[in-house]
Each structure stands twice: as structure tokens, then as C-alpha cells.
Design brief:
Elements: H1 3-11, H2 31-39, E1 42-46, E2 52-56, H3 59-67, E3 71-72, H4 101-109, H5 115-139, E4 143-144, H6 145-150, H7 152-162, H8 169-179, H9 187-210, H10 216-225, H11 232-246, H12 248-263, H13 265-273, H14 278-288, E5 299-301, E6 305-307, E7 310-312, E8 317-320, H15 322-325, H16 360-377, E9 382-383, E10 405-407
Helix pairs in contact: 5-7, 5-16, 7-11, 8-9, 9-11, 12-16, 14-16
């Protein structure tokens, strides 16, 4: 057998699975991930676009893809590059940059997500959760925890941080929903949503130049206008990046976390009895919940790279399957078991390397306070429908819940 035939046999080339895979339950990774990690940890898959990529399912291989500069984000924006979504990534987005451009822009926005700013935001977020729970209580059960809490909290917080007026937040949420589509919306709809969001942010920049405020966008505008290395396009795209990254993923994680606790009543009882377990419970929820179709951002190899027993050729796409890495039995003891007391938990949910999630601290705080306040205020909180009736969002990068009916 030739070397090429050996590699084809090892990776299953010629029987490429179609990605994304279907999960059996919202929040759970598809069973294909376990099978591939055991048999073909680096395997070719076909995307809805018709493009192919290497899907990486093992923990250590995921760490390599996430941190090795030979796996480039910037190359995914080149004409003809393989893509997962209906339209190519925007090259001006922080998500789509490699160092040193990425380093320069991240340095400008990082202080807004630093420890000091997050500590100041914590009581503000807690008050917002209290108000949202007030609304749930006033309306009475049954209630939808998605529309009543999970979506409203992160869109409020991220828009407050950036300086987006209250009246515009639902429009922002709608654009982000479309932008993170896989197959739900046509390519032209996704392109229009991107253009509409950028157009809106251009107008917001102009308004804040006239009337600066105490918000991140005003700070970035000041940096731009004082001669810092930030173009007008980069300024607008920084706003789009913060909004896209700070809303839907956190909203979906909150909803999936409540569902996970409902599905594991003994763990919910332990958390209620011992609120001091909340930090470890948050980490375990972040590890356990399969939030997206696979996990990380698509990369393109800038040179031939040997990974997981196969050679990834220059120009080929690689997708880190973080949901699979977070269930790797070589790293996590009984990875399929949800345990709020788990101590060793080096999950990769927020990524690794230069693209480690900028808003990781903020997401943790929002999830922790959403759980703490709601479980304290609604001690009888429970799922109001059978789990089997719930369906995750289809045709979308984010596998959240359209609704989560609860009672108390």
C-alpha cells in the first residue's frame, strides 16, 4: 500500500461524513464525535457549502490547531478558501486576523474586558438578572426562560458595554442571529445582515463622535481619532466583533445550562444545597454543553502540517471540534458524566492561543449570576415540558434553544 493509500485508509478519505452532525439532545455533542475521536481523530468532512476540511476531535490535537500559527485564520478570508458558512469571513474582523494585526487590535479592546472593568460590571449584571427574574415572577408560570432571561441578559450587557441604545438592541440581536447561520438563511440574506450591521455601526460611530459617552465604542473612537493604529473599517468591525461574540453564544449557554441542570436533578440539588459550588459548576457546564455545531473557528494550513497521524496540506481547512475535545477520556475522568464538583477541568470552550475568547470573564459572570439569582429566587424552578419535546436551533452555528418552558 502506498503512503497515500495508507493515509486514505486511516482518515476515511472517500467516505467523508457530512458536517455538521445531528445531536440527539440539545446540549449534547453528536455521537459521531466519540466515534471519530476513537477511530479517526483527524478526519475529512464535507460542509454544507460543499467544501471539505479536516475535523479534529482529540484534546491535544485541538490544542495544537488552536495555538499553532501555521493554522491561520487570515487565510480563511482569501478568495476560494474553504468555508463553513454561506459567505466568507470579513478580513477586517478580529476573528479573522493573525498576528501581528490581531495583536495590535486586541490590545486596544482588551482593557474593556479586564478584571477591573469586569469587577465593576458584576453588580450591574446582578441587578439586571434581578429585574429579569422580577419580570418572570410578575408574569407568573409557565414562562419561557429563553425570551425572559437567557437572550435578554447578554444583549443588554454587551450593548451597555459598547454603548448601543436600548431601542436598537432587538435589531442587533436579529442581525447576529442571521450572521451566525449555516443553512437557515440564504447567502444573500447573510451578506445583507452583515452590511446592515456595519451600516448601523458606521452611523453609531458618527453619533458618538458628536456626543461621546462612557462606553467602549467612545473609547475606541478616541483611540482612532488620536492617531492610534486603527482604521475606520477596523473600528466598525471591532464593534461588530464584540456584538457578535458577546450575545448569542452567552445567551445559548445560559439556556443550555439550565436545561442541563434540569436533566441532572441530583446535580441541581447539590448546587442548591451548596451554592459555593457555583464556580466549579459553571466550568463544568462550559465543558459539558455542546454549544456549537463543533466548536472553534475554521483555520487554513499555511504549510504542510503533520497532525494526528495525517498530513494536512498547505491550503486545506481544519476545524477544531472543541465539543469533542471537552469529552476526551484521555483528559477528563468519565467525560460523559456531568459533575458540578469536578475539580480538574481544563476545558477548551473559550479556545486557546491568540484567539482565546476576549469575553471569557464576562461570559462566566453572566452565567454564574443568571444561575445564582434565578435558582435563589425560584426555588421550585423546573422544566415545564418533557425533554424530548425540546429542539436545538437548526441550520445554525450556535446550537441554542429557541425556547425553554419552565414552571416553579
Amino acid at each position: 500500500m502506498t503512503a497515500q493509500e495508507t493515509q486514505r485508509a486511516a482518515t476515511g478519505d472517500g467516505e467523508r461524513p457530512r458536517f455538521p452532525f445531528a445531536a440527539r439532545c440539545p446540549g449534547e455533542p453528536a455521537p459521531e464525535f466519540d466515534r471519530l475521536r476513537a477511530d479517526r481523530p483527524v478526519a475529512r468532512v464535507t460542509f454544507p457549502t460543499g467544501d471539505t476540511a479536516w475535523l479534529v476531535t482529540g484534546y491535544e490535537d485541538n490544542r495544537t490547531v488552536l495555538s499553532d500559527p501555521r493554522f491561520s485564520r487570515a487565510l480563511t478570508t482569501r478568495p476560494g478558501a474553504p468555508r463553513l458558512q454561506p459567505i466568507p469571513p470579513d478580513p477586517a474582523s478580529l476573528f479573522s486576523m493573525d498576528a501581528p494585526e490581531h495583536t495590535r487590535l486586541r490590545r486596544l479592546v482588551a482593557p474593556a474586558f479586564g478584571n477591573r472593568r469586569m469587577a465593576a460590571l458584576r453588580p450591574v449584571i446582578e441587578r439586571e438578572v434581578e429585574l429579569l427574574v422580577d419580570g418572570l415572577v410578575a408574569a407568573g408560570p409557565p414562562a419561557d426562560l429563553v425570551s425572559g432571561l437567557a437572550r435578554r441578559l447578554p444583549i443588554t450587557v454587551i450593548c451597555e458595554l459598547l454603548g448601543v441604545p436600548t431601542a436598537d438592541r432587538e435589531r442587533i440581536a436579529g442581525w447576529v442571529d442571521v450572521l451566525l447561520s449555516l443553512t437557515r438563511f440564504r447567502p444573500e440574506d447573510v451578506a445583507r445582515a452583515r452590511a446592515d450591521l456595519k451600516g448601523y455601526l458606521e452611523g453609531l460611530v458618527a453619533a458618538k463622535r458628536e456626543s461621546p459617552a462612557d462606553d467602549l465604542f467612545s473609547e475606541l473612537i478616541a483611540a482612532r481619532d488620536s492617531g492610534d493604529a486603527l482604521s475606520e473599517e477596523e473600528l466598525v468591525m471591532m464593534g461588530a466583533t464584540v456584538l457578535t461574540g458577546g450575545f448569542l453564544s452567552t445567551a445559548s449557554e445560559i439556556a443550555l445550562s439550565f436545561l442541563c441542570l434540569f436533566r441532572h436533578p441530583e446535580q441541581l440539588a447539590a448546587l442548591r444545597a451548596r451554592p459555593e459550588l457555583l464556580p466549579s459548576a459553571v466550568d463544568e457546564l462550559l465543558r459539558y454543553n455542546a454549544l456549537t455545531t463543533g466548536g472553534g473557528l475554521l483555520r487554513v494550513a499555511s504549510e504542510d502540517v503533520r497532525l494526528g497521524g495525517v498530513t494536512i496540506a498547505t491550503g486545506e481547512a481544519v476545524l477544531p471540534a472543541i465539543s469533542a475535545a471537552n469529552r476526551d477520556p484521555d483528559v477528563f475522568d468519565e467525560p460523559g458524566r456531568f459533575d458540578v464538583t469536578r475539580e480538574s477541568n481544563p476545558h477548551l470552550t473559550f479556545g486557546l492561543g491568540i484567539h482565546y475568547c476576549l469575553g471569557a470573564r464576562l461570559a462566566r459572570i453572566e452565567l454564574e449570576l443568571a444561575l445564582a439569582v434565578t435558582l435563589r429566587r425560584l426555588p421550585g424552578l423546573r422544566l415545564a415540558v418533557p425533554v424530548g419535546e425540546l429542539r436545538a436551533e437548526g441550520g445554525h452555528l450556535i446550537r441554542g434553544l429557541p425556547e425553554l418552558p419552565v414552571a416553579w
